[in-house]
């Protein structure tokens, strides 16, 4: 059933108080709920319809009177009671089986502990309730369980009581003084230990910080704890937001559908996003922990104190919070590197979503299953939209807008329009056209043309926009696009001055202009331009668009050498490489080993030996565009040609710059060996360049390079270097090292057997290998003793690794990859619909492939659709993607 934003209507009832009691047993859990309900008198009288799913109703009472079966109706998804007074007490008892709940939504068991995941609509799997975010209530929760098995009993807010019961049971009661929607409810019961610390807020309040883990992970939460403190301080400094309860808790669980969840005062985390140790976590893993800890913490204001009116507003909290965590991570490390990583991900993944059958606006207008809309569009593109608001009004006005938003809406459930209105009111700017970023799907194409007039010393820049059709609309209104521009002369950026009265602003140093494109085409004229410039466009990636400008290689070369904006500099190197790869792709039709443009090699040599550049930037600039990004530039993705052409260029770079890479490797290796592993920004940057050099060295296939790699694998004291070496070996096409690969994999497994998170990476490195035969490997990994089909991290590592990060093998012409994925989806659909629906994504992109593959992919989709009793999650994605 499709739900529409336009059908939104305020709730008929409010729940002022929610009192819950959980009796946890091995076979069943009893949930007693007592709700203080008041009718919404602004609306006509209506029956009370509570949501409830997969729960057994044991009893129900109104104002203390037990109802008989004829007093209410129950179906698969609801409980309805008519003829109620305006205020009353509703009580019910439900029985559920958390230990059998494999969907990991609602109350479930992860290994030995009970835990919950209620966003978006999981609370209804616990008890009958008005499970919608605009119903906000004060919660009191009593948890009762066996004391020996479950010594730790947690819920939101503050502990208000505890005691012993007969039969070895005990109870703890929690109260959360802040009104919240049911999706922010959490409960945990387990045999856990805690690591504690403290934080003093800006107003001098002392907060207890407590991370709960299994005893074996005791030494793995220091990094998350420090990240939490940094995030708390940052939110005070940058947004003026202080924490509000006396305790902040994080619990790490192994089985979790997503990264983490911002439940009020009791965040629940996938272990992969909170635990970190040098021996099991890569640098990227450390950065993910830092980012996710901050993200969930920031939700305390952007999400919890001010929440969403309905799920169409999801980006209100997610887009804003991702923007906040991106800026936090930028401040903790290198802002440019962070920006390049984020944009790179957006362009290869979110753009593909925008071009696919599930494309939707940042504020969707309809859905069948909301879980399908926790997407790159709502999260990452949503963050880009918030970023554009800041670009348009400036940091100072943006802060005023955010203060106004929190002040106006504290304790409320609001809309994206409310957020933008606060920004508009604080800045005095008009955001009506800008709203199209929220309402229209699709990635706009921004075309730019430059024209230098030597006589007038003017440079005219004509900007035009268009946007391809997407499922929700064939035609598009123009977007309000901020285009940050610099003009590069022979010596560097020129001073800018614009002719006439145009919508634009120029920076204090006069080197950057933000041009505002608000119609389908506009020309901006720069004056006093003494020489023909190269325009550097979309600085800092000022808008999530596809830029088309006909740069020559010389012009790109000037941007690479002279631009001070790190993003544009990196992007120019990507565009340069794209041109070179495109040549090779075209030539591959006729010759097996076409030449590679030497000028790229020279450009790379200059970058690699530039000591003034941040090593992490060098590593990024020496990374060729991903196969996904290259494919995105094509109407029909030519999987094999992309793979072979790109590899050819990689090998050419590796061989031509062999000496430079070796020198670079040795120098950094030496520097880093002087100190033990540390995940600080400088060391991370050095390791990224060193391991980029190592990867190129292994590409040469030279025995010395293989030896070097093997030595790093064996001697490394940290997961980053170990995984870099293992990946280079396992992904190498060199048949002669098959035994070495097997030996290293066996050795790694022996070392990591007891470390589930390390084993996940061991699975992923094999599932993502471009070497032929990956499917057989994946099938055998699924039989491995460490594989667990119930655990989403294992599924993502093995099935996700193969289907989403191994194009060349997944898209094998035989269709074996597609058939395999369909089999897995059919199996997983009944077990865990959310994970099934997500893993299905690659099959939905069939339109981007040749006719033969299209047919095979559609056959796979049809087979999934034919499964009786398909979940709404998978049903929605399959049916929408089958539309021709
Ligand atoms: N709000 C969580 C976060 O952004 C994600 C929750 C995902 N839940 C879901 N059902 N997909 O960190
Ligand atoms: Zn979030």
Automatic annotation (TrEMBL):
<dbReference type="InterPro" id="IPR014782">
    <property type="entry name" value="Peptidase_M1_dom"/>
</dbReference>
<feature type="domain" description="Peptidase M1 alanyl aminopeptidase Ig-like fold">
    <location>
        <begin position="442"/>
        <end position="549"/>
    </location>
</feature>
<dbReference type="GO" id="GO:0016285">
    <property type="term" value="F:alanyl aminopeptidase activity"/>
</dbReference>
<dbReference type="GO" id="GO:0006508">
    <property type="term" value="P:proteolysis"/>
</dbReference>
<dbReference type="Pfam" id="PF17900">
    <property type="entry name" value="Peptidase_M1_N"/>
</dbReference>
<feature type="domain" description="Aminopeptidase N-like N-terminal">
    <location>
        <begin position="19"/>
        <end position="184"/>
    </location>
</feature>
<dbReference type="InterPro" id="IPR037144">
    <property type="entry name" value="Peptidase_M1_pepN_C_sf"/>
</dbReference>
<dbReference type="InterPro" id="IPR042097">
    <property type="entry name" value="Aminopeptidase_N-like_N_sf"/>
</dbReference>
<dbReference type="InterPro" id="IPR012779">
    <property type="entry name" value="Peptidase_M1_pepN"/>
</dbReference>
<dbReference type="Pfam" id="PF11940">
    <property type="entry name" value="DUF3458"/>
</dbReference>
<keyword id="KW-0378">Hydrolase</keyword>
<keyword id="KW-0862">Zinc</keyword>
<keyword id="KW-0645">Protease</keyword>
<dbReference type="GO" id="GO:0008237">
    <property type="term" value="F:metallopeptidase activity"/>
</dbReference>
<feature type="domain" description="Peptidase M1 alanyl aminopeptidase C-terminal">
    <location>
        <begin position="554"/>
        <end position="882"/>
    </location>
</feature>
<dbReference type="InterPro" id="IPR024601">
    <property type="entry name" value="Peptidase_M1_pepN_C"/>
</dbReference>
<dbReference type="InterPro" id="IPR038438">
    <property type="entry name" value="PepN_Ig-like_sf"/>
</dbReference>
<dbReference type="GO" id="GO:0008270">
    <property type="term" value="F:zinc ion binding"/>
</dbReference>
<dbReference type="InterPro" id="IPR035414">
    <property type="entry name" value="Peptidase_M1_pepN_Ig-like"/>
</dbReference>
<keyword id="KW-0479">Metal-binding</keyword>
<protein>
    <recommendedName>
        <fullName>Aminopeptidase N</fullName>
        <ecNumber>3.4.11.2</ecNumber>
    </recommendedName>
</protein>
<feature type="domain" description="Peptidase M1 membrane alanine aminopeptidase">
    <location>
        <begin position="223"/>
        <end position="437"/>
    </location>
</feature>
<keyword id="KW-0482">Metalloprotease</keyword>
<dbReference type="InterPro" id="IPR045357">
    <property type="entry name" value="Aminopeptidase_N-like_N"/>
</dbReference>
<keyword id="KW-0031">Aminopeptidase</keyword>
<comment type="similarity">
    <text>Belongs to the peptidase M1 family.</text>
</comment>
<dbReference type="Pfam" id="PF01433">
    <property type="entry name" value="Peptidase_M1"/>
</dbReference>
<dbReference type="InterPro" id="IPR027268">
    <property type="entry name" value="Peptidase_M4/M1_CTD_sf"/>
</dbReference>
<dbReference type="InterPro" id="IPR001930">
    <property type="entry name" value="Peptidase_M1"/>
</dbReference>
<dbReference type="Pfam" id="PF17432">
    <property type="entry name" value="DUF3458_C"/>
</dbReference>
<comment type="function">
    <text>Aminopeptidase N is involved in the degradation of intracellular peptides generated by protein breakdown during normal growth as well as in response to nutrient starvation.</text>
</comment>
């Amino acid at each position: 059933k499709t739900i529409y934003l336009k059908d939104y209507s305020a709730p008929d009832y409010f729940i002022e108080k929610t009192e819950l009691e959980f009796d946890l047993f091995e076979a069943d859990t009893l949930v007693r709920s007592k709700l203080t309900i008041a009718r919404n008198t602004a609306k006509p009288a209506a029956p009370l319809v509570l949501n409830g799913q997969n729960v057994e109703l044991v009893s129900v009472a109104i104002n203390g009177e037990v109802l008989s079966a004829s007093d209410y109706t129950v179906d698969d998804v609801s409980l309805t009671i008519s003829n109620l007074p305006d205020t009353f007490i509703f009580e019910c008892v439900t029985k559920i089986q958390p230990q059998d709940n494999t969907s990991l939504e609602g109350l479930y068991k992860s290994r030995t502990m009970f835990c919950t995941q209620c966003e978006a609509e999981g609370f209804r799997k616990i008890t009958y309730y008005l499970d919608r975010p605009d119903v906000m209530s004060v919660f009191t929760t009593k948890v009762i369980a066996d004391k020996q098995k479950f010594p730790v009993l947690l819920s939101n807010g503050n502990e208000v009581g505890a005691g012993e019961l007969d039969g070895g049971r005990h109870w703890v009661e929690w109260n959360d003084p802040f009104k919240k929607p049911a999706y922010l409810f959490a409960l945990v019961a387990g045999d856990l230990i805690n690591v504690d610390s403290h934080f003093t807020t800006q107003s001098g309040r002392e907060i207890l910080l407590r991370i709960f883990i299994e005893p074996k992970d005791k030494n793995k939460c220091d990094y998350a704890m420090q990240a939490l403190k940094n995030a708390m301080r940052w939110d005070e400094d940058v947004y003026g937001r202080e924490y509000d309860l006396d305790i902040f808790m994080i619990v790490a669980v192994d089985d979790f559908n997503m990264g983490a969840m911002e439940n009020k005062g009791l965040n629940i985390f996938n272990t992969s996003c909170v635990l970190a140790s040098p021996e099991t976590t890569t640098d990227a893993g450390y950065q993910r922990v830092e980012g996710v800890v901050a993200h969930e913490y920031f939700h305390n204001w952007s999400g919890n104190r001010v929440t969403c009116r309905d799920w169409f507003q999801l980006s209100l909290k997610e887009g804003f919070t991702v923007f906040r965590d991106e800026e936090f991570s930028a401040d903790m490390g290198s802002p440019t590197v962070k920006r390049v990583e984020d944009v790179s991900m957006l362009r290869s993944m979110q753009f593909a979503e925008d071009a696919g059958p599930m494309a939707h606006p940042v504020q969707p207008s309809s859905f069948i299953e909301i879980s399908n809309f926790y997407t790159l569009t709502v999260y990452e593109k949503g963050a880009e939209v918030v970023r554009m608001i800041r670009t348009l009004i400036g940091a100072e006005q943006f802060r005023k807008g955010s203060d106004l938003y929190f002040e106006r809406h504290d304790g409320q459930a609001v809309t994206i329009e409310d957020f933008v209105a606060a920004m508009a009111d604080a800045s005095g700017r008009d955001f009506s056209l800008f709203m199209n970023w929220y309402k229209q799907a699709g990635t706009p194409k921004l075309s730019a043309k430059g024209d230098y007039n030597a006589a007038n010393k003017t440079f005219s820049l004509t900007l035009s926009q268009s946007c391809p059709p997407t499922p929700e609309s064939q035609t598009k209104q123009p977007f309000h696009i901020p285009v940050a521009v610099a003009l590069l002369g022979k010596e560097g950026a020129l001073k800018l001055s614009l002719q006439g009265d145009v919508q634009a602003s120029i920076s204090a140093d006069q080197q950057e202009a933000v041009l505002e494109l608000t119609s389908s085409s506009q020309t901006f004229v720069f004056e006093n331009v003494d020489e023909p410039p190269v325009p550097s466009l979309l600085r800092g990636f000022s808008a999530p668009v596809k830029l088309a400008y006909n740069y020559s290689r010389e012009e790109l070369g000037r941007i690479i050498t002279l631009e001070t904006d790190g993003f544009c500099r990196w992007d120019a190197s990507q565009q340069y490489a794209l041109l070179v790869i495109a040549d090779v792709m075209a030539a591959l039709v006729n010759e097996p080993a076409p030449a590679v443009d030497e000028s790229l090699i020279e450009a790379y040599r200059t970058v690699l030996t530039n000591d003034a550049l941040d090593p992490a930037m060098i590593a990024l600039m020496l990374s060729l565009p991903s196969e996904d990004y290259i494919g995105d530039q094509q109407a029909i993705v030519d999987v094999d040609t992309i793979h072979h052409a790109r590899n050819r260029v990689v090998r050419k770079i590796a061989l031509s710059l062999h000496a430079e890479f070796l020198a670079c490797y040795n120098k950094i290796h030496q520097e880093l060996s002087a100190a033990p592993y540390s995940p600080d920004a400088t060391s991370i940057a050095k390791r990224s360049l060193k391991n980029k050099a190592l990867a190129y060295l292994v590409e040469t296939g030279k025995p010395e390079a293989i030896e070097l790699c093997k030595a790093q694998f064996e001697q490394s004291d940290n997961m980053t270097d170990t995984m870099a070496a293992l990946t280079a070996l396992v992904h190498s096409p060199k048949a002669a090292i098959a035994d070495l690969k097997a030996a290293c994999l066996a050795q790694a497994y022996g070392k990591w057997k007891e470390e589930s998170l390390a084993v996940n990476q061991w699975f992923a490195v094999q599932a993502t290998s471009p070497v032929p035969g990956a499917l057989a490997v994946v099938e055998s990994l699924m039989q491995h003793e460490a594989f667990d089909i119930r655990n989403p991290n294992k599924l993502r590592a093995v099935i996700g690794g193969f289907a989403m990060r191994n194009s060349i093998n997944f898209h094998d012409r035989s269709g074996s990859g597609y058939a395999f994925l369909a089999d897995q989806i059919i199996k997983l659909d009944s077990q865990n619909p959310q994970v099934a629906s997500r893993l299905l994504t690659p099959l939905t992109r069939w339109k981007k492939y040749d006719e033969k593959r299209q047919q095979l992919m559609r056959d796979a989709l049809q087979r999934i659709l034919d499964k009786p009793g398909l979940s709404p999650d998978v049903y929605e994605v399959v049916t929408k993607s089958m539309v021709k």
